[in-house]
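Late entry, written up from scratch paper. The run itself happened at the end of the previous shift, but nothing got recorded in the book at the time, so transcribing now.
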Amino acid sequence: MSLNNLPTNPMNDPVYLPDLGRDELTTLILGWDQPRYRAVQLWEWLYHRKVDSFDRMYTLPERMRQRLAAETVLTRLELVQELHSSDGETSKYLFKLPDGQLIETVLMSYDGVRRTACISTQAGCAMGCVFCATGQMGFARNLSHGEIVEQALHMARILEADGERLSNVVLMGMGEPFHNYENSLNTIRVLTDETGLNIGQRHITVSTVGLVPAIYQFAEEELQVKLAISLHAATDEERTSLLPINKRWPLNDLLAAVRAYIAKTGRRVTFEWASIAGENDTAKQAHSLGNLLVGLHCHVNLIPLNPTSGYDGKPANPHHLNQFVNIVESYGIPCTVRVRRGIDIHAGCGQLKAALAGLQHSE
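Output as recorded:
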């Protein structure tokens, strides 16, 4: 995106700096008759030092800081609410955007070392997965890449205030990242920039319901980012009943794209499986899944279904989960059960929905 193509309006709104990539930021600063190195300094203040005030950018000339304050903004995210789970490891943050849209971001701690931010790429979601709260609320709009990046920045500041570091980012929050492809990709570039947040590519995961053309495209990006695919069923009939997108790209098409991705990148793919009692947690389903994926360089991640108000399914019980794991692994496919997190604050997978404490999603 060039600076000339930035959204404009008659009100001459200030430039939202997180929406600018390196080149666009440099173009802006050079246009102010500032030397190129000032753009480098500004980038580092934004993403390496993560400051939230122009006044703190002390290496920049005062007049430049004044102009930045007058003509640009650092944030579009207004923190409306934060909730902390009784598990002591999960927090959820509700942000309001200037147009009234609400999005949620989750911060999780693992093993006393990993600190993972689960960030949203859309306000709502158009995929309509029946057991997902975000899908139940419908689609409002794509987030700009600045609005996506800023969620990670916010989590990084929280952690650094406690002497910790954001180590992992998953694009698994509200929305379908591949439905907002370019902005999701631009986000990854900022997150992994060595002079920015400097998060290793292998510590970033993109989760998709299976937008087949985007999987082929993603394979060509030459990234080391992890790819997770929401599968949840091993037959077209059963998967379509859970994920409407399967009507457009059924399992044969999806797995062809996955094989092409693995052949191109050499990377293992994770298949996500929300385990629903009496639905997809049976031995028969496990054998169907094993036959479907046998020989594929992949991993299956079982997620006991998290409750949502719009779906009455129940999570699989531990006995059925263990049986399922054993059957899938008998086909030579690694299979694990994900630990449920933040259920009491509706911060688990499939639970994100921008309506808390009486706040309603704005259409």
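The chain has eleven helices and 14 strands.
(Scratch paper discarded after transcription.)
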